[in-house]
Amino acid sequence: MRVAGAAKLVVAVAVFLLTFYVISQVFEIKMDSSLGNLFATKPPRYKCGISKACPEKHFAFKMASGAANVVGPKICLEDNVLMSGVKNNVGRGINVALANGKTGEVLDTKYFDMWGGDVAPFIEFLKAIQDGTIVLMGTYDDGATKLNDEARRLIAELGSTSITNLGFRDNWVFCGGKGIKTKSPFEQHIKNNKDTNKYEGWPEVVEMEGCIPQKQD
């Protein structure tokens, strides 16, 4: 009886030790996991989702042209989406967002149909832009058919280089400003070419991001 009792005691102790070991291992794993989560650092997110932070006295922006005639363009400035399909304020043609060059505050958003519309309202809109205004433009479907020399000249005066060559269903994004003294470095343009188009009848989407210098007094 004593031998049997001793054996039971040994087994009980062994089970206790094994249970204690298992619990301690599980607890240690959980602790390691919790500490790992505690000290893990998330990658930083910058305004508009751009790849790096802008320096002081600069506005962050990111924009994309439309995709074929299905998905509209998107324009973001200082983490504020100014135009997009979700906001339901984009349309066929050239989409334009205006912002205050000193504060980054949005002033206006409009789109002008350059396939079935009239270029005259677009020209009047361009002429009315005030000095010091940030101008962001992106095409959707076709942004060129109704453009005439006057409209192209007015856009070129905002700093665009590619506007003179913008053709039927080309994809184009541009960021410039009224009163700019040089050509803008913020412009992307892809020609509509049936041999290289990503979509049938349209080239791939063009995207662009950057930091716009704040207008100084």
UniProtKB/TrEMBL annotation:
Domain ILEI/PANDER, first and last residues per copy: 92-179
GO cellular component, one term: extracellular region
Keyword check for Heme: no
Keywords: Disulfide bond, Lectin, Secreted, Signal
Pfam families assigned to the protein according to its UniProt record, in alphabetical order: ILEI
Compartments where located: Secreted
InterPro entries for the chain: FAM3, ILEI/PANDER_dom, ILEI_FAM3C
MF annotations from Gene Ontology: carbohydrate binding
Primary location: secreted
Domain of life: Eukaryota
Family: Belongs to the FAM3 family.
Stated name of the protein: FAM3 metabolism regulating signaling molecule C
Source lineage: Eukaryota, Metazoa, Chordata, Craniata, Vertebrata
Gene coding for it: FAM3C
